[in-house]
Specification:
four-stranded antiparallel β-sheet; alpha+beta; disordered N terminus; 2 domains; Surface presentation of antigens (SPOA)
Length: about 140
Amino acid sequence: MADEETPKEEMSEDAQAAAMLAESGGEMSEDEQAAAMMAESGEEAPQAEASGGAAPSGIKGNLEIYGDIMVEVSAVLGNITMPIEQFLKLGRGAILELNRGKDEDIDLKVNGHLVAKAEITVVDEKVGISVTKLLDRKAV
């Protein structure tokens, strides 16, 4: 059954849209990627139980099922553009001036997508971050 594909007519609207977007090679949000994976496997998005709760809109209804999916979280201090010749001459102790001030928040990215701003902190003798602002996904 792993090789069988569910006909698109039998998929929910969310699953159909996600499958079409996945086939087109377009960039998808994490919710759309999860819906596409479920569509490819023939699974349906979780539905609300008949306990009187409002029906969820598509895949956002039960996020606990995605709890073990790993994502890459990056804290970006800043960046710099330089010629490769200059980069190749760098040695131990070289200092690069980044494009961010010492009191400016750093960027917090999830799978390469900017999602928040944060400040650097220390947690149990390790460098950490403290989120200062969550960014609207549509505005980024």
